Amino acid sequence: MMKELLTVYNEQLEEVGILSRDEIHKKGLKHKVVHCWIIERGEIGIYLYFQQRSFNKSDFPGMYDIACAGHIDAGEEAEIAMIRELDEEIGLNINKNDLKYLGRKFEAFQKGEFFDNEICEMYLLEVKDNTKFILGDEVEDMVRVSVIEYEKWINKELKELEVSSIEGSKKVVLREDNICPHIREYNERLLETVYKGK
Q1: Is 0.85 topped by the overall pTM?
Q2: Could you tell me if 120 and 33 are in contact, meaning their C-beta atoms sit under 8 angstroms apart?
Q3: In this protein, which residues make up the domain named Nudix hydrolase (predicted)?
Q4: What's the rounded mean pLDDT across residues 103-108?
């Protein structure tokens, strides 16, 4: 299996080299990733999708996270990486015009010898209620939550969120201990985009 090669950036966000993903995470070097929030606007409201990460993941296994995310390979454009990840992780085939760019965010996280120092390029994708997700090896499940209920959880009016799995009748409860911690950091920009269509 070939090593995944990523571009390394300095504090001024200038490209300074190319290293393997493993080496970048060991040294905590800045690199780029893509994140995609997926929403569905229906007759009875707006819904937000989360993915459940594979239990085989080295970080946050089995936890619920942004609908789709991944690394930008060395020499790859962010939008192309986002399109690739949507196809690989959840089986959606889209084009650039389907994506709405939300901006850039910086994230740093360390757990043992794993140090993630990310430059996140963020996108929003709107899907229809009949969209079929085809889950790849990195994703256990996808769930859908009402944005109104989600906002109540964000505002701490609710401690738990009961959500629907795409598997049909399966019900899932989301709590602080099974949602990736970075989720809350996105919410102001996300909710403004969802409600105002910005």
Answers
A1: yes
A2: yes
A3: 29-167
A4: 91
**Average per-residue pLDDT for the chain:** 91
Banded pLDDT at 2 (limits 50, 70, 90): low
What average pLDDT score do residues 110-126 get?
90
Cα–Cα dist 100/78, whole Å:
12
What's the Cα-to-Cα distance from 170 to each of 32, 41, 109, 131, rounded to whole Å? Answer: 35, 22, 32, 18
Residue 55: exposed, middle, or buried by beta-carbon count in 10 A (0-12, 13-18, 19+)? exposed
Residue 2 CB neighbour total at 10 angstroms: 5
Q: Report which residue type is found at 46.
A: I
Residue 197 pLDDT exceeds 80:
no
Exposure b/e, 39-54, CB count within 10 A at least 16 = b: bbeeeeebbbbbbbbb
Residue in this structure with the two tokens 């001024």, named with its chain if needed? 12
pLDDT at 168: 74
**DSSP code of residue 152:** H
Q: Is 53 left (phi over 0), alpha (psi -120 to 50) or beta?
A: beta
Which domains does the chain carry? 5-196 (3.90.79.10)
